[in-house]
Records
---
Amino acid sequence: MSAISTDLVTARGLRKRFGAREVLQDIDLSVSAGSITVILGTNGAGKTTLLRILGLLEPADEGTVAYDGIVPGVSTVTYDASTRNPTQDPHYLPLRRRMLLAFQHPAIFSSSVLSNVMYGLQLRGVSRAEAEERSMAALREVGIAERARQHASSLSGGEAARLSVARALALQPRLLFLDEPSASLDPYGTKLLEDLLLHMRDDLGMTAVVVTQDIFEARRVADQVAFLHEGRIIEQAPRDDFFTHPRDDRTRRFVAGELLV
Ligand SMILES: Nc1ncnc2c1ncn2[C@@H]1O[C@H](COP(=O)(O)OP(=O)(O)OP(=O)(O)O)[C@@H](O)[C@H]1O
């Protein structure tokens, strides 16, 4: 990460409610360009919902998100809660094309593994030949090139997770959102994923926001850590500060593996 870092994503005052339940409250979050920000939190804390809002898959009820320097030639794209359906709104299309969200159970199209990786590239206007070349290279990097012609629905959970990472590698989005990327990976797959994540940051200049419940994974990959608890960001800090000098007692207890009630 460069010494002078700019914030690529700045969320202010995000709130989200499902029925009577307030799932996110007054969320402020900053994501520096070229960094890996890990969102840690307990089950049901709102991590996936926050990722979906930041990734423009879900509207917030209140608040704004500024995306700086993601769309070429456009300094800032601002999202606010008056947009009811950011997924459909053409205003956000150039922004969405520069972002990729990868979920624990990736959306898999009913076609070959290779086509699943190529799809995003072709959607963005990359020629078929180049898309195939980049996709095969990505599948080799994640270790499932021999599955390229196989039907994607026949992949195991861990292989599907690798397919998600291959999509990111092939596409090289400016901003990558990963939801519990190593949840179904074996130790070798987890190491591969974490190494690729660091490679994407260091060599490809990508910025990532990673949701996990695994504090050890956060220690290994994070530049910044945000702790989300019961819909609120309790603390956001550089990794070492977060783990060695947590400011909030709930963060200290979470990091120590204690039950938060
Ligand atoms: N579409 C929805 N409709 C109603 N409630 C929802 C919806 N999506 C999420 N929730 C609720 O919002 C809360 C936060 O869910 P979310 O998936 O964001 O949490 P999480 O931190 O990712 O949890 P986990 O670690 O268990 O995956 C949960 O109580 C969940 O039941």
---
Amino acid sequence: MGIVVAKFGGTSVGSGERIYKAANSVVNEYMQGNQVVVVVSAINKTTDESIKLVNESIGELVTEKQLAGILSMGEMQSVRIMAATIESLGVKAEFIDPFSEKWPVITDSNYLNAKIDKKETQKRVTKYIKKLLNQGIIPVVCGFLGCDVDGSVTTLGRGGSDVSAFLIGHCLGADEVVIVTDVKGVMSTDPRKLNTARKLDKITVEEMIDLANYGAQVLHPNALRYKDPNIKAKIISFEYGDLRVQGTDIIGPAHEEYDVITITKCDDKLSVLAVVGENLMNQQCIIAQITQKVCENKLNIYGISTGESSITLFFKEDEAIKAHEKLHDLVIGGDTLSSISLGQKIAMISVVSHDFIDTPGIIASITKPLHENEINIVELSSSQTAVVVFVDWNDGDKAYDLIKETLQ
Ligand SMILES: Nc1ncnc2c1ncn2[C@@H]1O[C@H](COP(=O)(O)OP(=O)(O)O)[C@@H](O)[C@H]1O
Ligand SMILES: N[C@@H](CC(=O)OP(=O)(O)O)C(=O)O
């Protein structure tokens, strides 16, 4: 016997027929001897429709607290219908919403993007949800919602039902979390945008996080925070009405702890090369020509950035000498580039954390102490989860210490 958390997204409960199919799949899983927790989103586009109504009626005068309360209605409705449908199939089910005494997900009072109180949630999942499972009852829990210490409804942010499912799975020590949605699994790209998209049989947690961070709606980027190594996870289609169907397996735990900031200074001394030319932004294939040259000579680029009239590249000190020579050949062999310069010795400091995605001001908090200590930043690049700072080699250790002091 195992514990399975099954989450049904809005489209998977988008009609009476789909709700029946979903309830039936849950009951079948239960009949096979598993304990099942159901997490449900609002039916179809209910949340979008509520937002539209609020915009048209109240507009900006709505408070965040009021809006969270209004949005919660979608999930309040869907859990009731789902629990009743499961019961109609002969198995005991209990809906749980933020007003239930047994509500598990406790958050702060950031109403529309609430932060989860993991300790309190863990306690309540054990006390209430686990108990229901042991009584043979199927808990049907509102996805997306939380409740603060004052008893006010909060939301976990748009698409937050995925977070609810993995959070509850984590707190229960579940065997599996199954995300039921309107695609066959994770695809090579959004099938609504490219019809050549194909289904992946598996994807690693890290890959899935990156895909989600860059907008693949299929899973909320914060959900996998709660994917423990021993929890199996998959994304499947609602079409089959079967939780055992194959979709995309999400493999392994997250490699890096969330909540943790990793700061590293590259051991290698780097050199900066600037390739210069007029109006490079509008020149086609120039980056391809540069990287092709670098690739032919088996050199590794540590960083690259583009500007109006220059492209800056970072290489290991010894490789930069060869890169300089080879890229100079490119410069004098064509009309687009005018010149190249091999500049100072550089230290590279990388700052990485999954928390950067939704934390404003990270770049400012990295650059402020450097500015205050008169350390010049040669280059800075950033992605959703990483900021890489290039400074003069002689400033490297001090810059590293300052960033560490500020962020940790
Ligand atoms: N790489 C991808 N693989 C699968 N689906 C994707 C991908 N990128 C974006 N999507 C979109 O995610 C949608 C599913 O997410 P969502 O609409 O939030 O479902 P649900 O209502 O079940 O939570 C799909 O319909 C698809 O258009
Ligand atoms: N109903 C909420 C929460 C959610 O997760 O929905 P879905 O699972 O349909 O993406 C929203 O639309 O944001």
